Amino acid sequence: MLYLIYVGTIMDDKCPVSVQWLKEITEGILIDLVVMSCAYPDLCDRRLEKKNEQFDNKLPLFQSKLSHICSMFKLAFPDSIMIWVPPLPQKLLNDKQTNQLKKLIQICYDIACDEYNFDFLKRYQNWIDCYKQFYVKDAFYISKNGVRELTIELGELMKKKWSHYIQMDPPNKRFKTDNDLLKI
User: Three-state secondary structure along the chain?
Assistant: First the structure.
């Protein structure tokens, strides 16, 4: 089962992420694939200006919260394939916002992928350039072509992962394939 979790704002303490909460929202179902991303409204330029705060001063809090959330996901879904998708950029990026987004994406990658071993869609490492093809112009939602591209990419990654697991696991512990079902 594919499960997409989009963390709205990881700095919001009103809805803390816990292993129990994650298991409740999935109703205890074994999840094969978890795709995770996050918004970053607390780090957006306009909100920071309103609060008279600095992007670089807010990053340490973001990093600690993201690290906590990644650890909760790993505990809640220990047997799932975990994929990190970079945060969605703002509609129109000026040079300052572009640099902040690059920094944020690198921090997310360092924490989610390097520290917690989430998979990352390598083909889309430069999200600042490719988001234009994924998202509807001047909107915050993915276009039909974007959904198709991401679905294909996720499918290819799952195929590789499942093939790897099937080769490693003994037949009684692995996912059932079409070949296994034909033998029954």
Answer: CEEEEEECCCCCCCCCCCHHHHHHHCCCCCCCEEEEEECCHHHCHHHHHHHCCCHHHHHHHHHHHHHHHHHHHHHHCCCCEEEECCCCCCCCCCHHHHHHHHHHHHHHHHHHHHHCCCEECHHHCCHHHHHHHHECCCCCCECHHHHHHHHHHHHHHHHHHHHHHHHHCCHHHCCCCHHHHHHC
In the Cβ-directed half-sphere of 85, how many Cα atoms lie within 13 Å? 23
10-residue mean pLDDT profile of the chain (184 residues): values are 60 66 76 77 77 88 87 86 77 77 86 90 64 66 78 82 60 51 52
What CATH number is attached to the domain comprising 24?
Answer: 3.40.50.1110
Provide the domain limits for residue 137. Answer: 2-183
Tokens representing residue 148 in the block: 């198709």
Q: How many domains, the chain?
A: 1
pLDDT on residue 117: 92
CA atoms within 13 A on the CB side of 77: 30
What is the pLDDT at residue 183? Answer: 54
Specify the pairing of strand 119-120 against strand 33-38. unpaired
Q: What angle do CA 149, 108, 141 make, to 5 degrees?
A: 40
